[in-house]
Specification:
This protein is mostly beta strands and about 120 residues long. Helices cover about 0% and strands about 50% of the residues.
């Protein structure tokens, strides 16, 4: 599966952004999807994940819980990350990733990755 993330940009603290990740290739609905991020000078970290079907199981990092929402539209082969109440510490390159068949928080369990989209939150 090939993944393409988009939707990053510059936003003020307290603002919102929605990231999208489009997938092509094999059956999108067979893959659990995750969002990860890499802040400047730091390692890549888990943000959110969703199981194979819309309305299914979701996981969130404690740092984004109640602010970010992951969702998917299997008909459009797309997973989304709605980010609200953004903080400067959310500044990072955000990556989408796919794995089959089950949901995971672990970076090294995702074999397929998109190219990343930069989110910058100004104070």
């Amino acid at each position: 599966v090939q993944l393409q993330a988009s939707g990053g940009g510059l936003v003020q603290a307290g603002g919102s952004l929605r990231l999208s990740c489009g997938a092509s290739g094999r059956t999108f609905s067979s893959y659990a999807m995750g969002w990860f991020r890499q802040p400047p000078g730091k390692g890549r970290e888990f943000v959110a994940a969703i199981s194979t079907w819309s309305g299914g199981l979701t996981y969130y990092a404690d740092s984004v819980k109640d602010r970010f929402t992951i969702s998917r539209d299997n008909a459009k082969n797309t997973v989304y990350l709605q980010m609200n109440s953004l903080k400067p510490e959310d500044t990072a390159v955000y990556y989408c990733a796919a794995r089959a068949p089950s949901i995971s928080r672990l970076l090294n369990e995702y074999p397929y990755w998109g190219q990343g989209t930069l989110v910058t939150v100004s104070s």
